[in-house]
């Protein structure tokens, strides 16, 4: 089978290509990515030379780019990881998020279905459900929860989900959606909490914690997200939505202290800063549907995988420093100040 992996040069798409090109030597993987500030071709270095991988630079919002990749390859399955993915950036430039995450997805979906793909899988997020209160630990997001997005990022992802599901209802299209919680692991862009805190702590910079630091996320190691998507794409019926989660809720201050502890740095580096606008309080995933229907469960435990993650960033300093392009520095300065 031939897979089109959009957003392949990003964090999760890149990890997906590393894992799946090895696991399925008889399948072909076409990595497709616009190489925005978040896409890094070096992330794909481990797969570039593999016989079952090709890279195509292209934009899901460009009709020409999308048509060309379908002309050049007989694609069976599309997995759409491509997105603007950072909540803070969506507060600065909401329209870019609508362009890529809504219009881009609609264009890619429509072309894929005209070309007769066997499956279009949309990589969505738990953020489409809004947030949960801290004082109700019994509440979890399940797939029937209403969409109640808070940020332009999550609203754009929810919109894409609605478009994808409308193609199923109206045209019986072969689509699936997954909604995962926060990922961590190698190759994550250092604007997100975990790699940013590792990077700052190592260079003795302050660790900016938003608000009171008590916001909760449900952390999942990236390889587990990848195997869950693979399980859905290969085994699910059409028109299904699956939550993916690690059952590993932690508040931000715990995450930050854990990183400082692994690196042997002091907590005096922590600095509480102004809160994110519209900051979601708590995410927590009920992943029982994917377990009972498809048999997927997470493999990696947080305590081990976070240590391995910190060690990866320490060993891969070069990857991290190469990412610090002009655009990265511009955003960091405008968002966090000098
Ligand atoms: P990322 O920002 O690291 O990577 C996104 C990739 O998409 C980049 O390589 C970028 O160049 C590419 N891209 C952006 N716009 C494009 C366009 N118009 N055409 C082609 N490529 C484009 O993001 P990520 O963290 O790897 O997230 C991947 C997907 O998973 C996203 O759809 C995101 O919403 C979803 N998701 C992420 C998480 C998480 O914790 N990171 C959790 C759940 C879901
Ligand atoms: O839940 C899935 C989502 O997880 C994905 O859909 C998004 O693409 C991904 O970016 C992530 O969104 P979050 O907003 O939860 O991740 P982020 O790493 O930006 O922030 C995690 C938490 O840490 C959040 O409560 C905000 C806080 N934070 C973040 C940064 C960057 C800080 O306190 N300080 C910071 O500097």
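^ Assign residues to that structure.
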């Amino acid at each position: 089978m031939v897979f089109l992996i959009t957003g392949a040069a990003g964090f999760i798409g890149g990890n997906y290509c590393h894992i799946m090109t090895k696991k399925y030597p008889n399948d072909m993987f076409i990595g497709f990515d616009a190489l925005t500030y978040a896409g890094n071709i070096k992330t794909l270095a481990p797969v570039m030379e593999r016989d079952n991988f090709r890279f195509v630079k292209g934009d899901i919002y460009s009709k020409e780019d999308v048509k060309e990749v379908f002309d050049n390859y007989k694609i069976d399955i599309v997995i759409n990881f491509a997105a603007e993915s950072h909540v803070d950036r969506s507060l600065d430039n909401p329209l870019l998020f609508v362009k890529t995450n809504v219009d881009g997805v609609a264009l890619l979906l429509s072309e894929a279905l005209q070309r007769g793909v066997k499956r279009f899988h949309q990589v969505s997020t738990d953020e489409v459900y809004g947030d949960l209160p801290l004082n109700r630990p019994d509440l979890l997001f399940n797939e029937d929860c209403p969409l109640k997005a808070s940020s332009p990022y999550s609203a754009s992802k929810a919109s894409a989900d609605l478009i994808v599901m409308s193609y199923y209802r109206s045209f019986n299209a072969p689509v699936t959606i997954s909604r995962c919680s926060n990922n961590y692991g190698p190759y994550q862009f250092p604007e997100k909490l975990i790699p940013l805190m590792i990077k700052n702590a190592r260079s003795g910079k302050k660790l900016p914690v938003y608000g009171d630091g008590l916001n909760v996320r449900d952390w999942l190691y990236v390889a587990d997200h990848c195997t869950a998507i693979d399980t859905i794409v290969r085994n699910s019926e059409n028109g299904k939505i699956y939550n993916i989660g690690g059952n590993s809720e932690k508040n931000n201050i715990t995450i930050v202290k854990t990183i400082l502890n692994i690196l042997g740095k002091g907590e005096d580096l922590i600095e509480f800063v102004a809160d994110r606008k519209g900051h979601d309080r708590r995410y927590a995933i009920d992943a029982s549907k994917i377990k009972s229907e498809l048999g997927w469960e997470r493999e990696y435990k947080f305590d081990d995988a976070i240590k391995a993650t910190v060690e990866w960033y320490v060993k891969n300093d070069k990857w991290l420093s190469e990412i610090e392009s002009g655009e990265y520095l511009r955003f960091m300065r405008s968002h966090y100040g000098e």
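Residues 94-114 form the longest helix (21 residues).
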